[in-house]
Amino acid sequence: MSQLTAEQAREIAKALRKLSSDLGDYRFENRDQLSEEERSRIEGMEWTLLNYSSDMTAAAIEIATDNLVEPIAQIKNATAALDGAMENINSVSKAINIATKTVTFAASVASGNAGAIKDSVEGLIEELSHS
Predict the structure, then answer these.
(1) DSSP-assigned states of every residue in the chain
(2) Domain coordinates in residue numbering, the chain
(3) pLDDT tens, 36-59?
(4) Would you say 98 and 86 are in contact if contact means Cβ atoms under 8 Å apart?
(5) Which long-range contacts (CB under 8 A, 24 or more apart) does 96-102 make?
(6) Which of 27, 49, 73, 125 has its CA 20 to 30 A from that of 87?
(7) What does the alpha-carbon distance between residue 24 and residue 19 come to, in Å, rounded to a whole number?
């Protein structure tokens, strides 16, 4: 079997969490029609699915982190380039452009998407080189 991507692991985690929540809703809505044993079994499955959802979320983070090995140097370069970048800005539009590229960079790092990190670092460094 091929390895899951971080996005696939997140989608699975989301689906498992939703199913766990739906089971809980079902259990509460049908409490009077369910035996104690049935309520207990459903509650056990809710918790099992919730735990698996948490596991898949952790797996998604781990996969995303593993995919960041190459961009780490790029991230270091971009953060070094940002140091003092605003000190020599002589126009509002330049400050806004740098801020916009920096926000894009931060969002891509937060997402863990290696391709987005690479693109945002390149855009940020390009913007900073023209300041």
Answers:
(1) -PPPPHHHHHHHHHHHHHHHHHHHHHHHHTGGGS-HHHHHHHHHHHHHHHHHHHHHHHHHHHHHHHTTTTHHHHHHHHHHHHTTGGGG---HHHHHHHHHHHHHHHHHHHHT-HHHHHHHHHHHHHHHHT-
(2) 6-66, 71-129
(3) 999 999 999 999 988 888 888 887
(4) yes
(5) 97/127, 98/124, 98/127, 98/128, 98/131, 101/127, 101/128
(6) 73
(7) 9
User: pLDDT value at position 28?
Assistant: 92
Question: For the chain, first and last CA: distance in Å?
Answer: 49
If one counts every other C-beta atom within 10 angstroms of the C-beta of residue 93, the result is 8
Pairwise CA distance, residues 112 & 126, whole Å: 21
Q: Is 28 exposed, middle or buried (0-12, 13-18, 19+ CB in 10 A)?
A: exposed
pTM of the entire structure? 0.52
Dig out the tokens for 86 from the structure. 């605003």
